[in-house]
Amino acid sequence: MGLALLLLAAIPVLAQAPGVVTNGDFAQQLAGWTVLRPAGFAAGEVTAEAAEPGHGLAARIVNPAGEKVLTGLIQSGFTALPAESRTFRLRWRQRTVRQPQILEIRVAACDAAGKLLAPHNEHGWRFIRPEVVPAGDGWRELTAGFAARPNWGGMQLTLWVNGPGAEVWFDDLQVEVSDPRSLAPASLGRRFGASGAAVWTEGPLRKVYPDEAPATTPGEAIELAACRGECDVQQVAIRPVAAVAGASWEVGPFNGPGPLAAGTVRGNWVGWVAVSLACSDASILGDTPDPLLAAPTRDLPADRSSALWLTATVPPGTAAGTYTSTLVLRGPGLSASLPLRLRVYGVDLPRTGRLRGISRIWQSHDGALELFRANIAAHRGGGTSYVGGLTAQRVGDRVLVDSSGLAAAAAESVERHGFTAFNVPHVYLGDWSGPYAKDGQWFGFELWSPEWERAFGDYCRQVGDALRAAKLLPRALWQIWDEPHDEWLPRCVSLAKLVKQAVPDAQIYLTAAIDETLLPYVDIWNLPWPDTFDPTKVAAARARGASIWAYQNSLYSLDCADSSLLMATYPWRLRRYDVVGVEWWAVSAWPSDPWTKPNQYEPQNGGGFLLYPTPDRRGAPLDSLRWELFREGVEDYELLTLLAEREGPAAAQAVVEQIALSPGTVSRDPALLARLQRTLRERLETPR
Q: Does the N-terminal or the C-terminal CB of the chain have fewer CB atoms within 10 Å?
């Protein structure tokens, strides 16, 4: 991230048509561009050369050998942006001849006169890390989106190529207005007869906005399907002619091959949050569906579309077959009775899955932490934060650990929920900006001093012994840093050595792109996904016995029409590339009220939370559509894993590749996903 701040300077103004990148095709060689050679780095050469037949010239950036090598190319002017839109897409062509360590395109904010708007974090600058393009793979068309804040009059591009020996070509840079609505998945809607309203079902991947038009294709029944131990979801949309006060729903008794527990199918009205700031090219402003409300009734406004979210949770031991019931909608002036079918497959989904994970609880309601943990377990979140039961205090030149409460804490916070991961306390020392302790102290010891090294190693040994005795060590993540770079990489090497010397069987966990200097020490690489996925580096890490996890923070976004689709298909991408763990840095980070301020963290609407607090901050948290669809995707991951075990990896891969097209792209056809989910269940149920 520090690379993005290397240049803060006034920009000369160039007259140009709105949205046009001056000389973005480099037909005029490097006119309108300036080469950047930042102090403290060796720099390469930038030239404009013939790219390929029919495309004229392109910008070629070639870095020399060395330890710290960075070369940039910045617009000498700026690109004006049309005021009638705030959502845009950057398009360009790129060719990688030799792989860079980091490739970054910076979209800096300017006012209408071309003056930079700084600091970057207050004005929504966009730092694009393109998906890694394999060297020698030829030219590729790439796109990335960004949003302009209300005070943006223009933007300025910078191309950064970091790393010794890298060679990257750029061509045909252009900016265009984007239509966020075009990202909405196709409708699978089916309409039903009703009095006082249009009522239809809609697939779970399409969000029902207030202006959603009713479906016209006739429907037969609400269709739900799941294995034993699995969930399935569906939506019912209602658009009343006149306002309905206190609309309610009820699912009748089920008829089928066996008893079905009450509450197997439950409903939640889908609430809205008001989005007022575009944070990406996909942002849709206004009332946005995301939270699932706990109240059994809801007031439905006239001539606006609302949704009821249905969740079927099939208990273990349920007899396979088809169950039928009826969903009844009622309210003043509203009456509808919809047939409902639930297909239960004779396949058991394991309670503890093969996709490990950690989903951190930052805030919770007073006295309700256990309900938050239960929610994470129900959504297959894998684990959360610290296990508890380990306390530490400095005594003289040591930090002594009291593990007397570990067994009880582990039983409550880990074993009860089948969690497979948690963080070890007091070893997570810094992030991309440096050490968390701004005073440079750890329990009063000066970081990196010989005294600290002895105390830190001794502390790790005590914790490791306690976790090993409690049979918890295989689930413990020794996360030493978050997104280290440059000068912090050697510190991570030192930290990892200290941990390993004290606890040889510790799992060192690092959220970072794979770095050669750390390969001997890191056991779990948690990659920023998909832009740092490099098959060659991943193979090298796996050859040393390391496993690969992933995190993709862009998926927190709640303000885009395809957030449900992207969440549901995320685990398919992970399954295709044998990623075995996933992290959410927070599921309940609420510095203020997410109901009134959805951008709790300025760059993103939805960032840091997948759960909502209740209005009175009591009891269990409220789910979001995003969190529901993540669970659906993880269950698909488990079905694919079962298929691989039953029919072989190639059979599962043939299915998964139809959805996961690359590390960063997926099929956008909701009907295809539904068909493949049905295929998976049917193949697993069929006797061999």
A: C
**Over the stretch 165-223, which tens digit does the pLDDT of each residue have?**
999 999 999 999 999 999 999 999 999 999 999 999 999 999 999 999 999 999 999 99
Residue 278 makes CB contacts below 8 A (sequence gap 6+) with 86, 87, 147, 148, 149, 285, 559
Structure tokens at 585: 């840095």
In 3D space, the residue among 336, 307, 104, 319 whose CA is nearest the CA of residue 197 turns out to be 336
Residue 561 token pair: 């029409």
Q: Are 104 and 144 within 8 A, CB to CB?
A: no
Residue pointed to by tokens 């002619």: 241
Residues 31 and 59 sit within 8 Å (Cβ to Cβ): no
Contact in structure between 149 and 112 (CB atoms under 8 Å): no
CB 376 within 8 A of CB 361: yes
Q: Is 473 helix (H, G, I), strand (E, B) or coil?
A: helix
Predicted local distance difference test score (pLDDT) of residue 132: 61
Q: The tokens of 172 are what?
A: 């045909």
Residues 6+ apart with CB under 8 A from 155: 78, 79, 81, 107, 108, 109, 110, 146, 148, 175
Give which of 365, 378, 469, 359 is closest to 423, Cα–Cα: 359
Total Cβ atoms within 10 A of residue 658? 16
Q: Which of 127, 63, 64, 124 is nearest to 90 (CA)?
A: 127
Residue 439 corresponds to which amino acid? D
From CA 508, how far away is CA 510, in angstroms rounded?
Answer: 7
pLDDT in tens, 269-285: 999 999 999 999 999 99
pTM (global) more than 0.70: yes
What is the pLDDT of the chain when averaged over all its residues?
94
- The SS3 call for residue 309 is strand
- Please give the Cα distance from 484 to 137 (Å, whole number): 29
